[in-house]
Design goal:
By secondary structure, this protein is an alpha/beta fold. It contains two helices and eight strands; from the N terminus they run βαββββαβββ. This is VOC family protein.
């Protein structure tokens, strides 16, 4: 099997709100869009974010057409402290303040207007004495 691209499809009530948020705060741009649909791309992400309006009749299987609850969209970054400060200044809703796990995962979480949770991560040195 050879993959040619990767995307994650998120069902949200307001496609435009999530798409505009990802463009403004994460640097994505619109690859294609239609009523109830937006596909965003980023030159560094390696994945397209696709937003589908919840309840679209064309969504299959219909049983999977629920809001993107319980899902984390995670991106690894190089300068998490700078990103954290910038996003706070931009008024992004931070739901988990920046913290560092003993194994070296430094991260924070934020939400878009539809409640989708995004996590930015930077890998740092594990805490002294931590063993996996």
């Amino acid at each position: 099997m050879q993959f040619t691209s990767t995307a994650i499809s998120l069902n949200v009530p307001d496609v435009d709100a999530s798409a505009e948020w990802a463009q403004k705060h994460l640097g994505f741009s619109v690859a294609m869009a239609a009523d109830g649909f937006s596909s965003l791309q980023h030159p560094d992400a390696g994945i397209n974010l696709i937003y589908l309006r919840t309840g679209l009749s064309t969504f299959k299987p219909a049983s999977a057409a629920v809001n993107a609850a319980g899902l984390l969209v995670v991106f690894t970054v190089d300068a998490i402290d700078d990103d954290y400060a910038r996003l706070q200044q931009e008024g992004v809703t931070i739901v988990t303040p920046i913290e560092t796990e003993p194994w070296g995962e430094r991260y924070f979480q934020m939400t878009d207007p539809n409640g989708v949770v995004y996590q930015l991560v930077q890998w740092v040195e594990p805490t002294e004495g931590y063993t996996s």
